[in-house]
Specification:
Keywords: Aminotransferase, Pyridoxal phosphate, Transferase. By secondary structure, the protein is of the alpha/beta class. Helices cover 43% and strands 15% of the residues. The chain has 14 helices and 14 strands.
């Protein structure tokens, strides 16, 4: 057997995640490993918390990255906030709303769902009606930007309706954080989780979370122990919020946290409003180019999240074959549909470092070529010209 090092191929990541990672972040992750209780590493941890608060637009002290992918952050919020018998309403308009509901059930909660068509934002009035029907509940949970469809819901309005009913609010921002405005304090969000591999443009493996004072009080007053030892925030906070003397909990992924710190520095250097505008501009260019090819979007314009674009597959075109040729012939990754949308849509991501006008142009040009090879009629160059006219 010949032993060789792995050399990954060069890809342009324009799927639903991960996104491209900047060389600055990769270089940061390659720096010397130090101990996870080293005073200098503790200083870095505090900087990461401060930067995350800025990106989340919150003053919550309990703001930190969970060691694990976004799913770990999702589960951490659920198992810390809920106890067996708690009543929960979960808004489901795609895969990840369904996952929230399933996690709540496994935590022993009594779950009611507000079901929406896939590809549509959550209807605030449907939530209001369901809360009126079921009576008092402990928690309302929803996905801000549903990764399986690219639908963006009105987080501020949903949170207001939940609070009017006396419920806490849990919001998924895995795809939305640093791509569109997320304002935890202004919207009254009690608990929120995200992921590093989308608009933060950091490798997967960490999940930023934040909890309001109200949520912390609920966790402090719970009667049953948290079902997960590793995700028990009463233990994790001793490591992440323990001042100069940190209580050992687990060996943190030191170099991954170097990368998260650098990605947050880059976002704050650019400025969040500039980052949001860049995502919006690239989205508008991509949509103009796709429509110039005769393709249609799966989500209404007013309900689209700019960083995740669901595109209907034309009749007679091999959905998987197009994705395969884009990857093999052009080095571009886009995503497939999930659940009832499998085989019916492509998901094109414009997340973080991947959200650049030159990447939009490259993706459109490659898609034109591959669609022509599939027998779909396009006019070469028209899509990229339409995108450039909109996004520059």
């Amino acid at each position: 057997m010949t032993l060789t090092s792995f050399q990954p191929p060069k890809r342009l990541l324009m799927g639903p995640g991960p996104s491209d990672v900047h060389d600055r972040v990769l270089a940061a992750m390659g720096r010397t490993t130090i101990g996870h209780l080293d005073p200098e590493f503790i200083r870095l941890m505090d900087q990461i918390k401060a930067h995350l608060r800025a990106v989340f637009f919150t003053d919550n002290d309990l703001t930190m990255p969970i060691s694990g992918p976004a799913t770990a952050g999702q589960e951490a919020t659920i198992v810390n906030l809920l106890e067996p018998g708690d009543k929960v309403v979960v808004c489901v308009n795609g895969v990840f709303g369904g996952r929230l509901a399933e996690m709540a059930r496994r935590a022993g909660a009594e779950v009611t769902t507000v079901d929406q068509d896939w590809g549509r934002a959550v209807d605030p009035e449907a939530l209001r009606a369901e809360l009126k029907r079921v009576g008092p509940v402990k928690l309302v949970a929803f996905v801000h930007a549903e990764t399986s469809t690219g639908a963006l819901s009105d987080g501020e309005t949903l949170a207001k309706i939940a609070h009017e009913a006396g419920a806490m609010v849990l919001m998924d921002t895995v795809t939305s954080l640093a791509g569109v405005p997320v304002r935890i304090d202004d919207w009254g969000i009690d608990a929120c989780y995200s992921g590093t591999q989308k608009c933060l443009s950091c490798p997967p493996g960490l999940s930023p979370v934040t909890f309001s004072k109200r949520a912390q009080d609920v966790m402090n007053e719970r009667q049953a122990p948290v079902q997960s030892w590793f995700l028990d925030l009463s233990l994790l906070t001793g490591y992440w919020s323990g001042g100069a003397q940190r209580a050992y909990h687990h060996t943190a992924p030191v170099n991954a946290l170097y990368g998260l710190h650098e990605s947050l520095v880059m976002i704050l250097e650019e400025g969040l409003e500039s980052v949001w505008a860049r995502h919006r501009r690239c989205h508008e260019g991509l949509v103009a180019g796709l429509e110039a090819m005769g393709l249609t979007m799966a989500v209404p314009a007013a309900e689209r999240v700019p960083e995740l674009n669901a595109v209907r597959v034309p009749e007679g075109v091999d959905e998987a074959g197009v994705r395969r040729r884009l990857l093999e012939d052009h080095g571009i990754e886009i995503g497939a549909g999930l659940g009832p949308l499998a085989g019916k849509i492509w998901r094109i991501g414009l997340m973080g470092q991947s959200s650049r006008p030159e990447n939009v142009a490259r993706c459109l040009a490659a898609l034109e070529t591959v669609l022509q090879q599939s027998g779909y009629q396009v006019r070469p160059g028209e899509a990229t010209a339409a995108a450039e006219a909109v996004a520059g």
